[in-house]
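Sample 3 of the quickstart, ligand protoporphyrin IX containing FE:
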Amino acid sequence: MAEAHVTRAPTASPCPAEAAVKITMILTFVVLLLMMAFGLLMRLNQAAVVQLDPTMFYRLMTAHGIGMVGIAGMSGAAIMWYFVSRHASLTGWVFWALLSSFLVGVVAILASIFIGGFAGAWTFLFPLPAMSGGVWDTGAAALYLVGVIVIGVGFLIYLVEIGRALIQRYGSLSNALGWPLLFTGHQDDAPPPTVVATAVIIVFNGIGTVVGAAALTISLINLYLPSFTLDALLAKNMIYFFGHVFINASIYMAVVAVYEIIPEYTGRPWKASRPFIAAWNAVMLLVMAVYPHHLFQDGVMPAWAMVMGQIVSYANGVPLLVVTTFSLLNYLYRSGIRWDLASALLVTGVFGWSVGSVPAIIDGMISVNNVMHNTQWVPGHFHLYLLLGEVAITLGFAAWLARGEAGELLSGWKSRGLIIYAIGGFGFATVFLVSGAMSVPRRWAAHLPEWQFQDQLGSIFAVATILGVGIIVIPMIKRLAMTMRA
Ligand code: HEM
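Result:
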């Protein structure tokens, strides 16, 4: 068997709760495949190939949305935990607590959907959980909200622990954010890229999670005490702020794997330069300021918030593209890198993420949004950067974790799996984009006959995606389980 050239990171120290990180990866594969199957069922229903009761379609849509967002957050959290432990001293039980809260929350959410019939979409938009029109009862909505709150509490403990460890190691959060280097050009004990990125993420994701928890708790009380209410526009702002921040954080957390693993292949350490630190610190503000681009159609929103949403949508993509994609190209150029499954997936992930941000920026323009909002353009762009971005990076990390001492060259079923997954994922998301451009609405269980050709094509690409991901992850499950026993 041929072997790829890989240098191990000299500073690598054992990760506390490494077994929990590996279990999270295996759980990620299982949840991904199951939720993809739910997604395929929805697409086949839109294509009129299968006939689902509309209430079942919306249950599947709710499970698919919350399941995918949750597992993206969980896998991103596992990756960031694993690499932060190289630079700061973490307390192992905290990650086990996060994993446990995730599992408890998932059981509650699945029961609320498939036993209780909750089908209000993962965005639990206030006051929809309380207004089911008889489709689900109060108990089912409450169970759903409690499940999400339990997971949120696990995330908050996780974020606080990472913040504590960084402050202990670097003396202050501003040192971990690289502010002395950014503002004076000099810092003793300057933080590496992973630390800068992590410090940024815990700030905005911490704020987002608290805002989300508040919206969830108010919705929960409102279920049993309807007079305890919240302004619906404020609730929508809180929920979209939380949702936008959380899903973006899942990608940013996963990207840490690129900063840590790619240097092992290229032999070129990823440096935290001043532009790098400036870009990440800009992301901290931009990712929180950009969320009003989800609310362009809410005419009652203040005009300044809309203008900010549009302008920041342009600015948001710049640090992201420059810092990561451009630097990656630079590090790869003439590095002599030899490709194995891990490096190929990580690079695919960065490009999927970058390409996916382009239709997102386009939809962030008010004039385009007036036409594209609530069309399949929206699932088109987020499937592109989640399916080919976050998921590819996560699979790359898992392949690296499972590969033993040396990576095997990309050949045989590994390369076939990667190609099938990449073509399937790209085709699947592109069909959504094309349908969106033709004004096919999103979140409709039943489609008109003239839209069903795209739905059938999308279903074929979805089958390819599931097949490709299956080929990649099934051998990895065995290897990850074996490394846990070793
Ligand atoms: C084979 C893979 C996948 C298939 C077949 C699939 C299918 C679908 C379908 C049919 C929808 C509803 C589209 C509509 O609004 O008309 C949807 C929505 C969604 N998908 Fe996927 N998907 C896949 C992968 C993913 C991945 C990897 C993620 C995230 C990591 C994801 C996250 C979401 C989210 C957040 C929604 C929105 C749900 C809502 O509108 O409430 N999907 N997906």
